[in-house]
Amino acid sequence: MFTLPDLGYDFNALEPYIDGRTMEIHHGKHHAAYVTNLNAALDAAGGAGADKGLEHLLANLDAVPEAQRPAVRNNGGGHWNHSLFWNLMSAGGNDGISAELATALEKELGGMAAFREAFAKAATTRFGSGWAWLVVKDGALKVSSTPNQDNPLMDASGTPILALDVWEHAYYLKYQNRRPEYIENWWRVVDWSAVSRLYQAARG
Ligand code: MN
User: Fold this and answer.
1) How far is the CA of 82 from the centre of ligand 1 (A)?
2) What is the Å distance from ligand 1's center to 107 Cα?
3) How many A from CA of 128 to the centre of ligand 1?
4) What mean pLDDT do residues 162-187 have?
5) 49-78 per-residue burial string, b: 16 or more CB within 10 A, e: under 16
């Protein structure tokens, strides 16, 4: 049984960049539904190896019975992606990037400005619904994006250390069709201390 994690901050903590009503619906309705539907699919699949943890499940979707596989993929991905996403944001953001991550961004992706441009492009050009990612793959940083609730664990394309939800439900109330403006403002709430901790962990 998976459960909806606490947000860790108030719904309105990320205002004015992400509005409280959006956060309330996004966490309390969308994320909650992924958890409920994931549990139902796993029940129907007789567990499907979920006791080994969500990351193991998502990295081994072929082992899930075919009838429940799409539901486990979509809702398991939804649960994992959102659980990460909430933890990467904080009120007013946080500039506590580690020296190691700052150096790696400089050497591997051309520095913070170039990285932000590449990440925003991945987020903007993801057609329809999906996510933009900064991952560590074989020790190196890489920017990517996925459709729907897919994530880099599913095709072993890296360990996510930064994630951005570009589903319309993440921004539509405040930004309507202005996804680029949502992305630009989202940088103001990114918690670089949290990103740096994930970078250290992914580097091992
Ligand atoms: Mn979402």
Assistant:
1) 6
2) 32
3) 13
4) 98
5) ebeeebeebbbebeebeeebbebbbbbbbb
